[in-house]
Automatic annotation (TrEMBL):
One of its GO terms (molecular function) is prephenate dehydratase activity. The keyword Amino-acid biosynthesis applies. Keywords: Amino-acid biosynthesis, Aromatic amino acid biosynthesis, Lyase, Phenylalanine biosynthesis. InterPro entries: ACT-like_dom_sf, ACT_dom, Chor_mutase/pphenate_deHydtase, Preph_deHydtase. One of its GO terms (biological process) is L-phenylalanine biosynthetic process. Its EC number is 4.2.1.51. It comes from Aerococcus urinaeequi. This is Prephenate dehydratase. It comes from the Bacteria. Residues 3-189 form the Prephenate dehydratase domain. Residues 203-283 form the ACT domain. It is an enzyme of class 4 (lyase).
Length: 283
């Protein structure tokens, strides 16, 4: 039995990403008796279950094309014995949903996940009568307005979430940018990475000594090895105020040398290093 976890409820973008991963990467249909898809209320219990071998894989959103790094998910992955081996790009087509018969001009509050609200700022410019209200999740927001049965409240959620709850689309294209996408990584329990594989992308989390030029030295090493830097994000180190670690995403396909020697040098220049991901680019 293959057990795969995602955060949210049916209709969440994470569910859509999980279904797409199962079909496109595992070549399995979601009703296959060998597969169990498990939904979680939050990300931390999902990661804990992966580490405890209660699930085999988890699907985590890590970045949005409009708002950037999803910091709270990446922070949970730090210091955990997990490794991402797949990525998936999920289209994010936000819809403004209301109760059947609702009038968009009468809506005063719009519920959704904070990320989704940020991705729909122009909607609130067009309708100043609406106030954004941060809520747990996009799909849960759709469920919430059904429970409240109030035509003056609405939710921003996926097309599937609104359809599941029998809602009315008040604004079918609520998003600011067409082509908005969220990138997901599929994590497994940590296994040794393939040091001979320079074709797949890699993601590292690194903490450096608190001294001048520490990060610059790391980046110079990547330059010497001719590794293409594709992402660099700083995150506060827990229990160390105003100290930062760095998520580094890189493409080693044109590198000079090998990953094993690179890792040795990076370890010598850092106080902590974690291989977060090694995966084929899925775009």
């Amino acid at each position: 039995m293959m057990r795969i976890g995602y955060q949210g409820i049916p209709g969440a973008y994470s569910e859509a990403a999980t279904i797409a991963f199962v079909r496109e990467q595992l070549h399995v249909e979601i009703d296959d008796e060998r597969l169990e898809i498990i939904s979680y209320d939050d990300f931390k219990p999902m990661v804990d279950d992966l580490v405890a071998e209660k699930v085999d894989r988890i699907v985590m959103p890590i970045e949005n094309s409009t708002t950037g790094l999803i910091a709270r998910t990446m922070d949970i992955i730090r210091y955990q014995p997990v490794l991402a081996k797949y990525e998936h790009y999920q289209p994010v087509n936000h819809v403004l949903w209301g109760l059947p018969g609702a009038d968009i001009h009468q809506v005063t509050k719009v519920y959704s996940h904070p990320e989704a609200l940020t991705q729909c700022k122009l909607l609130f410019d067009r309708y100043p009568n609406m106030d954004p209200v941060a809520y747990i999740d996009t799909a849960v927001s759709a469920e919430f307005i059904v429970q409240e049965d109030d035509p003056t409240i609405a939710a921003i959620a996926s097309p599937r979430a609104g359809d599941l709850h029998g809602l009315q689309a008040l604004e079918p294209a609520a998003y600011d940018e067409s082509g908005n996408m969220t990138r997901f990584l599929v994590f497994e329990r940590y296994d040794n990475i393939d040091m001979t594989n320079t074709h797949d992308k890699i993601m590292l989390y690194i903490e450096t000594p608190h001294e001048p030029g520490a990060l610059a030295k790391l980046l110079q090493v990547l330059d010497v090895y001719r590794i293409n830097l594709e992402g660099l994000n700083a995150r506060p180190i827990p229990m160390k105020p105003f100290r930062y670690g760095f998520f580094i995403e890189a493409d080693p396909s044109n590198m000079i040398g090998d990953l094993e020697s690179l890792e040795k040098i990076l370890k010598a220049l850092s106080t902590h290093i974690q291989v977060v991901a090694q995966f084929k680019q899925n775009r």
